[in-house]
Design goal:
The chain is mainly alpha-helical. It has a domain at about 290-375. The protein is built from 22 helices and six strands. The chain has a two-stranded antiparallel ribbon with strand order 1-3. The protein has a two-stranded antiparallel ribbon with strand order 2-6. Strands 4-5 form a two-stranded antiparallel sheet. The longest helix is centred in the first third of the chain and has 26 residues, at about 130-155. It starts with a helix and ends in a 12-residue tail after the last helix.
């Protein structure tokens, strides 16, 4: 827990922006002492904004650890070896920097939330509504981070309060069910403490319905079949719990389906009627933009398109299988995927890339400065998760069909009848491509081993991928964390 040890009781570091990016502004902190910092409502507002800034790493984390890991991308390693190639190939070791980055980012953000929760009280924030909001936001963000940790690493240290460096070195891994207990408690509390919506500049903050939606996703994840002992899926059969939460969101009247798919991701339509929760980004050279469009697309394309900021690595390809899964008439295909391009030298590059979040005219000052929010939970996801719960609980097939066909109709596809779980998962794959959901969907539904191994046989023309096995549902505990106190952590099965 190297990242935690370095940050205990140092508020200046807890709220240090670094490469974080969010529209929620954090002012400089003049006094680095935690005891001295939390004095009034303004201090807590700054602290909560610091926690939101910790979410800036969320989209890229799920791009690499969910999209690249899944059958949506084939990134075997060309033009050199990068940290994401072993993620794709199932050849990871514990020294991979994506592992340490995910662990450190999550715990840094958790500690920001803990600092708020440990210090907030009626004397420092007398306004009960504001105090409840700050508390709810901190618990929502902390739950989101622990949900990432438990899905990626399984059992992890549960740290619910600020602790000293010495104490941190003695905290071992908490079993998965106990981590889930904290996640559920935090999200249930957030659902009660947070407002249903915000107006004006506060739009984009976590709401009570965002908490309900993420909690429903937690219940769905816990409910699936167990493929790996100590993994994130518990066979808990909590589909009814998820269904009821999703029904509350649908019945709330807070959200409305948008009939134009492209408008969901428009730079001019952020925090729209389908946005349940999205990470906020803003370009302008202030350190509040996102790298996502440039990370997905190659520099050679950016130069050919005369976008005057550098692009990412040229070897992050959309899989042929995903491309072929889109019907020719599917409107999402052309919007989501760049199917080859002519480079700056006039040569056709016959490769496919995600371009879902790109507006070529809306670049910022550099490749990390795009001003497009990144979705965490969309209303479409709420509808499709609700359909999924109905299939698991003996609900109305007619409602399932209508919800799936609502999404298909927007994409220009004909309706289906008698929609099955397999068809629903395929619809989710096409709808949420590049949004970081695919690997999680495969894991929680118990499809990951069968789907990935069939896909590897078909897709792995370089023959560099290892067969998918249950141990690879989790990632390795970062070696940097294991080295801090030998024997404190046992490495996840399947990794050296």
């Amino acid at each position: 827990m190297q990242a935690i040890i370095k940050k205990i009781y140092l508020a200046a570091l807890l709220f240090l922006l670094g490469s974080c990016a969010s529209k929620l502004e954090v002012n400089p902190i003049s006094d680095p002492s935690v005891d001295n910092f939390y004095r009034n409502q303004q201090d807590f507002e700054q602290a909560i904004n610091g926690a939101y800034n910790g979410l800036s790493a969320y989209p890229l984390r799920h791009f690499f650890l969910s999209e690249v890991r899944s059958d949506n991308m084939y990134v075997p390693g060309e033009g050199g070896t990068y940290d994401w190639n072993p993620v794709n190939n199932f050849t990871l070791n514990a020294s991979n920097t994506l592992m340490s980055g995910a662990w450190s980012d999550c715990y840094t953000t958790i500690m920001r939330c803990n600092a708020v929760l440990d210090n907030i009280n009626e004397q420092k924030v007398p306004d009960e509504a504001i105090r409840n909001q700050f508390t709810g936001e901190a618990r929502f963000i902390r739950a989101l981070m622990y949900f990432d940790l438990v899905r990626f690493f399984g059992a992890v240290p549960e740290i619910e309060h600020l602790v000293s460096a010495t104490e941190a070195q003695g905290i071992g891994r908490t079993p998965v069910p106990e981590i889930y207990d904290l996640i559920i408690q935090d999200l249930q509390a957030a659902a009660q403490l947070l407002p249903p919506s915000y107006a004006g500049a506060a739009k984009g903050r976590a709401t009570s319905y965002a908490a309900r939606g993420i909690l429903a996703r937690v219940y769905l994840t816990r409910s699936g079949p167990v493929l790996l002992e100590k993994g994130p899926v518990l066979n808990s059969n909590e589909y009814t719990n998820a269904r009821d939460l999703l029904q509350e969101i649908i019945s709330s009247g807070q959200y409305a389906f948008i009939n134009d798919y492209a408008q969901l991701f428009s730079y001019d339509n952020e925090n729209n009627s389908e946005s349940v929760f999205e990470v906020q980004f803003k370009s302008g050279g202030t350190g509040t933009g996102t790298v996502m469009p440039a990370e997905m697309l190659p520099g050679s394309y950016m130069r050919a398109a005369k976008i005057p900021v550098a692009g990412g690595n040229d070897f992050k390809f959309v899989s042929g299988d995903l491309l072929d899964s889109y019907p020719a008439e599917d409107k999402r295909l052309a919007f989501n995927i760049l199917q080859g391009f002519v480079d700056e030298n006039g040569n056709f590059v016959n490769q496919n890339y995600f371009k879902k979040f790109l507006d070529p005219k809306r670049y910022g000052v550099d490749l990390r400065d795009w001003g497009i929010n990144q979705p965490v939970l969309r209303y479409t996801d709420v509808l499709l998760m609700y359909a999924e719960t109905l299939l698991h609980t003996g609900g109305s097939q007619a409602i399932v069909d209508s919800l799936v066909n609502k999404v298909r109709g927007r994409a220009g596809l004909p309706p289906l009848s008698g929609v099955t779980i397999d068809q629903l998962m395929e619809e989710r794959r096409l709808e949420f491509a590049a949004e970081g959901l695919r690997w999680h969907d495969l894991v929680r539904t118990g499809r990951v081993i069968a789907v990935m191994n069939a896909w590897i046989v078909q897709e792995d023309e370089k023959q560099v991928m290892k067969p998918m096995q249950a141990e690879y549902i989790l990632y390795p505990i970062p070696q940097t964390e294991i080295n801090i106190k030998p024997g404190l952590y046992e490495q996840n099965a399947g990794y050296n």
